[in-house]
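Why should sequence recovery work at all? Because a backbone constrains its sequence more than one might expect. Tight turns favour small or flexible residues, buried strands favour hydrophobic ones, and helices have their own preferences. The token representation captures these environments compactly. In the example below, the structure is given first.
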């Protein structure tokens, strides 16, 4: 009897199994499409309301401008692309009259950091390319109005947007992505939280193109699950998890001494952490495989995203609902205020006389910035007793976010005392921009001690100000920024405190530092806001090509 029952079950599974394999992807897509249909029906009213508000705001904006002002505005908005239409290889046309909605998923849009500069520069470029398009930002900054946000954008970044076509939708679930919400299993918790936040966003409005500029890959995967006809784009500042992070857990690996989790993969707890990270990396790869257009901020980030997302993106039908992505992962360097620094900081034979033997490190006082390494390297440099070290000074400039940062600064001050270099090291906390500019004028060398800095906006600012950089031999500073120009160096790379000390010696002992400063400034021109806008539009047009079909005959 038991054998007969077992045989019956085995035959049933053998028969039904292939059918289940066929139907599971179908059911998966059906569930996603049904939920997507529900969200579209739910948000249709808000979509119509946003379009009406934009139209009314456009009328008010035009009425508030004089004839001269309207002409200048039109010229400015037409600067980026003066062509009537852009053709694609598939014969589709997507012109400047496209008036769809681009949703930017950036829950911390009012933070005022480098990531936010990317967001606002991207919106400005999008507005210039498609003047009639609507840019909607999903944010959790409930306490700030649209006017206040745009005013801060102008003051902080000197980026002027066209107000009528920028709108904000306020999320009520941002707490789910805070690290403090997930004291354990933080990576998985925050990623799960991004799904909750994405549902919140789509419950407010379903966009025509969905763009993530903060690194929430799971939100993009969720968008593909719900809306198969909504193109997605990701701007990745750094991978949520990287192969270097996984390798750093092993103390015997080449990177086993680097990062805040260095060597923590030993013992039962360490092995469990390693398995958890490996499983998360696989899920992260699946989410990244669903994204139509992927941009990274550096060659280092691109390489890691290629390793994680690339293999699955190149497979067709490997995962239900995910097709092979033909768009290559592109590097789009973030915009840096290069022109402003060139205007504010003089680099000339005359200014060279005013430079001091100051080593400047501008960075938040976070553990990964590795201030301790730089302080120890500076102490070793001073011990050498060289001519360059005789009157050298280390200046640490950075913001303090919370009590943890304050304690970190306190420990650094203790270290400076223990090394007997108190009179040669200065701390400037939460310095103003004018103060920072003054140090950029006075300093000779710019320092960066972070391992695997994904890009390094601060290093570009060093170069734009004419400083000679001594940076960690990894990440964006090594691969993209402090590189040779015209076959000659623009700075130096180091890993250990001894190597940094040697780098300080070389940088302050150059026979012709002015020539190196000119090369550094030339190098920085690769990271201007104009270059970012060009590359951004180049990638976003791929999303537009997926969304916009040929013009109807009635429009021709």
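From this structural description, the recovered sequence reads:
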């Amino acid at each position: 009897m038991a054998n007969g029952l077992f045989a019956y079950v085995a035959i049933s599974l053998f028969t039904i199994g292939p059918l289940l394999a066929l139907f599971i992807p179908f059911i998966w897509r059906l569930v996603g499409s049904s939920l997507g249909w529900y969200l579209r029906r739910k948000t249709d009213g808000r979509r119509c309301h946003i379009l009406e508000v934009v139209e009314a705001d456009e009328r008010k904006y035009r009425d508030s401008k004089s004839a001269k002002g309207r002409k200048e505005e039109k010229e400015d908005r037409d600067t980026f692309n003066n062509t009537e239409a852009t053709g694609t290889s598939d014969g589709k046309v997507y012109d400047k009259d496209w008036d769809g909605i681009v949703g930017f998923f950036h829950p911390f849009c009012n933070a005022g950091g480098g990531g936010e500069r990317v967001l606002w520069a991207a919106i400005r470029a999008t507005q210039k390319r498609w003047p009639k398009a609507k840019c909607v930002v999903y944010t959790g900054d409930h306490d700030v109005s649209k006017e206040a946000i745009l005013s801060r954008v102008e003051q902080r970044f000197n980026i002027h947007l066209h107000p009528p076509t920028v709108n904000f939708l306020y999320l009520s679930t941002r707490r789910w992505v805070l690290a403090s919400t997930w004291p354990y299993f933080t990576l998985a918790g925050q990623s799960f939280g991004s799904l909750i936040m994405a549902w919140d966003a789509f419950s407010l409005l379903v966009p025509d193109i969905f763009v993530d500029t903060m690194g929430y890959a799971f939100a993009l995967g969720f968008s593909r699950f719900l809306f198969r006809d909504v193109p997605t784009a990701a701007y990745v500042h750094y991978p949520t998890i990287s192969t270097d992070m996984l390798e750093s857990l092993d103390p015997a690996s080449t990177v086993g001494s680097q990062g805040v989790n260095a060597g923590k993969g030993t013992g039962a707890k360490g092995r469990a952490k390693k398995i958890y990270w490996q499983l998360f990396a696989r899920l992260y790869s699946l989410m990244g495989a669903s994204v139509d257009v992927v941009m990274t901020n550096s060659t280092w980030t691109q390489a890691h995203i290629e390793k994680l997302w690339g293999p699955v993106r190149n497979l067709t039908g490997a995962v239900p609902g995910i097709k092979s992505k033909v768009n290559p992962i592109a590097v789009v360097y973030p915009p840096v205020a290069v022109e402003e620094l060139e205007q504010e900081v003089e680099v000339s034979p005359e200014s060279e006389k005013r430079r001091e033997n100051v080593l400047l490190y501008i960075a938040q006082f976070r553990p990964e910035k590795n201030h301790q390494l730089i302080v120890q390297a500076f102490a070793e440099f001073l011990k050498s007793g060289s001519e360059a070290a005789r009157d050298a000074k280390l200046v640490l400039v950075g913001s303090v976010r919370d009590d943890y940062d304050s304690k970190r600064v306190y420990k650094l001050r203790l270290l400076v005392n223990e090394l007997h270099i108190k009179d040669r090291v200065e701390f400037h906390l939460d310095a103003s921009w004018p103060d920072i500019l003054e140090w950029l004028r006075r300093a000779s060398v710019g320092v960066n001690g972070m391992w695997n800095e994904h890009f390094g906006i601060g290093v570009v600012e060093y170069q734009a100000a004419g400083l000679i950089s001594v940076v960690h031999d990894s990440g964006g500073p090594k691969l993209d920024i402090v590189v040779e120009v015209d076959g000659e160096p623009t700075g130096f790379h180091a890993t250990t405190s001894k190597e940094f000390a040697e780098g300080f010696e070389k940088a302050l002992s150059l026979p012709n530092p002015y020539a190196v400063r000119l090369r550094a400034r030339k190098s920085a021109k690769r990271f201007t806001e104009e270059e970012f806008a060009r590359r951004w539009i180049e990638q976003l047009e791929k999303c537009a090509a997926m969304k916009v079909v040929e013009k109807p005959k009635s429009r021709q």
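A few observations help interpret the result. The longest strand covers residues 134-139.
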